[in-house]
Amino acid sequence: MINGFAPFVWMALAALVVLLPGLALLFGRGGPRDAAGQRVFRLRPVRRLCGALLIALAGVSAMLALTLVQFLRLTTDAPVARVQIHEQAPGRFLLTAQAPPGAAPRMYPLAGDQWQIDAKVVRWRLPALLAGVPPLYAFERVSGRYNDVARERSEPRSVHALSDWPVPDLAVLKRVFPNWLPFVDVQYGSAAYMPMLDGARYTVFMDARGAVVIRPDGQTTEEALRRAGW
What we know:
The protein has 230 residues and is α+β, with helices and mostly antiparallel strands.
C-alpha cells in the first residue's frame, strides 16, 4: 500500500494521465486555425509519434496494473469459517464452527486425533477466469480422523454433513442447466485437516484457485501446534 492506495491503483492512474495527452497528440489536428476558427489537420510526424509512444506507455501501465490485480487476487485467501475445538474426553472432541465467520455457531462431536473438512469446488475457464471470477464451493462434510491408519480402520468414525452451511452449490446448477454455464472448467473435491487440540482455534480459507486452507487463529494455537510437532 502506498499512501492508502494499492500499487495497481497508482499504475492505473498513471496510465490514464499518459493516455489523455497521447490521444490528443496522435489524433489532434495540430495545425493553425482556418477562417472559421477550426484547426487544420497537419501530419506533423514527430507529434504523432510522440502521441503513439504515450499511448503505448499507457497500455503497458494498464497491463502492469491488471497483472498486479490478478496477482493479488491469486495470493489472497477468503475466510469462510472459524472453528474452535474443545476436548470432551480422551479422543472425543466437540468442534464448534461459524460459517461464515460471525454466523450462529454449529456444533459437531468428533472422534479421533484430527479434524477434516471437505468441499466441492467449481472452477472457471476463460473468459470468466481472466475476468477474476472467484471459484464457487460447497462444503460437504466435516469428520474426525486418526493419525494411525490401523486405528482409522478399527476405531469409531465420526462424520457430519454440512449441507446446511449457507454456500451456493453451482455444481448442481451445472448438472441441471448445462447450457447455462459454458464457462465452468472443472468440478473437484478439496479437503484439509488439522489436529484436534483442546482450546485450539482455526480459520478456514478458500484460496483463489479453489483449495481449502486451514490456518491457526491466534498465537496460542500456533504454539500448541508447534508443541504437537506441526
